[in-house]
Fold these 4 entries.
Entry 1:
Amino acid sequence: MKMHTPVGQLLKKKGGEVLTIAQDVTVYDAVKTMDEKGMGSLLILDDQGRLAGIFTERDCLRKVVLAGLQPESVQVGQVMTTKVIYVTPETTVDECMALVTEKRFRHLPVIDSKEKILGVISSGDLVKFVASEKAFLIENLEKYIQGSF
């Protein structure tokens, strides 16, 4: 089953709330914010408000905890992922699923042609969408088979 739905449609349903922080915020404060908001990542903005990186739970574990650094004294700008892979609103669900599977990450910023951040799609958002679409298809096939379509 192909999912040619543009990811921009998922954002409309999900909402475009984007959590961003500056590069000079401490890892401790970033993790505290993620915990309070139930998020697994934060987008990091540069001084001009453009995307500079992404900070994830994985960054915290690998680059701070395993390195023996103190979260209260390390800034997210020092440990964030700077090579951010992002998608556009026109990118399909299938393309997003392929990216998160191949690259093994869970968060895809959605950015328009003017570099405006529109939202973040998680692997969970993608799985939820695919599951709901399959359930819809199954329901309609059952109705068709039963002759009540």
Entry 2:
Amino acid sequence: MKKLILSVLISGLISVNAYSYEVGDRLDEDVIKQLNLPEGKVGVIDFFASWCESCTKEIPEIKKFITQDTEKEAHVVGIDVDEELNEGLEYQKQLNIEFPVINDTHQKIVSAFSPIAMPALYYVKDNKVVGKRIGAIYQIDQQIKKDLQGFGVESE
């Protein structure tokens, strides 16, 4: 029941915000500071939550992508949108997430991006959205590799 309530709450947040980042949009300065992405790399921004079953399936594949990205051309940042910090931290521990994660308990970053579903993956280069993938994607690690090639990034 809690998952359903959280899902409805997130949907409500999304519908209230009339603006969402689309491909080609430049990020707001506040979001740029929060993400703190390194220059010259594509930021892979992964929105997830403990109540999202598809997120639980995709995160191991994202971790797999990270280990295969031997040239470190991409920089993965997770955005945990759980409102309860302890729930988010426990979820991250259960999945052994070792990539950087921002705990967005106040929903500021997810509100700025306003994805229409979870999981949500955004690609950011030079503080501009260059791509996105919304919803569950089978073998997301392979899809990320293909997407990066489309942005001119070669990933092993």
Entry 3:
Amino acid sequence: MEEIRKRRVLIVDDEDHIVQMLDINMRTQGYESICVNSGEQALDAAAKLHPDIILLDVMMPEMDGLEVCRRLKADPETRSIPVIMVSAKSEERDKIAGLMGGADDYITKPFNLQELFLRIKAALRQVDILSRAQGVHYEIGSVTLDTQKYQVTASGDRIDLTLTEFRILHMLFQNAGSVVSREALIREVFEKDPAEMGRTVDVHVRNIRKKLDSAQAKACRIDTIRGIGYMIKDESLR
């Protein structure tokens, strides 16, 4: 019988006691863990070892977590790896900065281990959902979304999205012309109670809009339905 591969978690933190604590608990939960202490080591490990998920500390010397995340998401080989930022910074603006920098999720120190494991499972589940959706192709205006290639393009030019952004856009494409509630997005993509999410979804949608605008996407617009959620429209069908 073929052995099932353990999911691989890359732990990035410059504080040894946190790395050791996470390492022990990851292994207890059945994950394989890779531990590094700097941003440069994180980039090298991500490129060579292809982890399934990355736990990334924000406050590190030389290269902080925000810069590491930006580089990971700019590299075609690592952009689809979900990144959960782990930080002592708990202000809303810090969380938004992390999400704007490309993080898929953000958790503050000190954190509850059970919550961390739930977030890891939710992120890995999104990877599994996309892998099962291979071969599905959507097109709205000049924008296409291809689940097999994990790729979004506008007039043939690639738009680089994080895993979470891709999942949100995928869900909007699946329901094109209909309103998708914030609650539905949160429960499907993050597997969390909407009351716990704050502005997280709004930040991710803002990022998607900016990337569509930067790519000069035509006839594809995401509308905010005030108090309810979002709807993607094909403006060429007017």
Entry 4:
Amino acid sequence: MNDQEARRRLAAARVGRLATVTPGGTPHVVPVVFALVDDVIYTAVDNKPKTTVALQRLANIDATGRASMLVDHYAEDWSTLWWIRVEGSAEVLKVNAEHQDAPTKRERPEQVVIGLDALIHKYPQYAGHPRLGPVIAVHLTRWRWWEAAAAT
């Protein structure tokens, strides 16, 4: 796998695992849908049932400013396995005043629009859901990958 193929596979992946670290140093990993735009991954707190939009991942990013994402392909034919892990600085972007209780600190409307447009384009389920919560932007600075085919 080369840089271009890693980028293509990451962008095409339907789900990733977003990893953050609590202020106390405990790992926190959650599955998320996401969109890649240039060197930024966007994911949003959607309107699926939650008790609050003040989620642990948001507090972790506010505290550390870092995140990592892992996408992978599994198949019974182990010669086709691969994974891609990206890391970078992360920020929580405020969408609107409705989400003031979330631990968001930054307002970057242009970044929010870019991220939400990319998510709506990739996931039609987002269209028509005006109650999207904070957006996470991970500015990628490190790429790592592995594939079984290259290991043989």
